[in-house]
Amino acid sequence: MKMTHILTRVGALMAGAMLLASCSTLDDSTAPSPAKETIAYSVGPCFGFCPVYSLEVTPSGHVTFVGERHTAVAGKMEREAGPAAYRAVASALADYRPADGTTAQTQCEQERTDHSSYGIIWTKPDGTRTVLSHDLGCISPRNEALNKALYAIPAQLGVAEWTQQKTETGASRG
After folding, report:
1. Distance (Å) of CA 66 to CA 50, 55, 72, 166
2. Per-domain residue ranges for the chain?
3. pTM
4. Closest by alpha carbon to 102, among 124, 146, 77, 132?
5. DSSP secondary structure letter of residue 71
6. Architecture of domain 38-163
């Protein structure tokens, strides 16, 4: 009886040790990747054939573009624009950035329908996301200045050619 109890305890200890050893050899690639600082925006559809795409830029100037519809380039493209390009984008959007960790929408004095909308997301290294939703048809002097800043970003990042409007034969609107 004593021997059975000892063997049971030894077996349990060995199983526990094996379990701990297996935990320590986990591949780091399965762990969630840490958040990174980015400024990203996506352009939504309009009633016509407006380009639909998303852009993301890191402080090092790494740009990721994904063309979805009505863009000169479809799919994912990447390029290095440099840290100065990131700083230029951050500066151009700074006055429109809501308080950290919040979501806001631009305010309209007048509104036109059927325009594209933008979702702008600032992500901090700790994962905190700050979001601004903006409709190009949301008219006010402040929003007109934001529109100009948004229109300039593709050129600042060197991807303006990728974002150009292109209508494929037989493509639907929106």
Report:
1. 15, 7, 11, 15
2. 38-163
3. 0.78
4. 132
5. B
6. 2-Layer Sandwich (3.30)
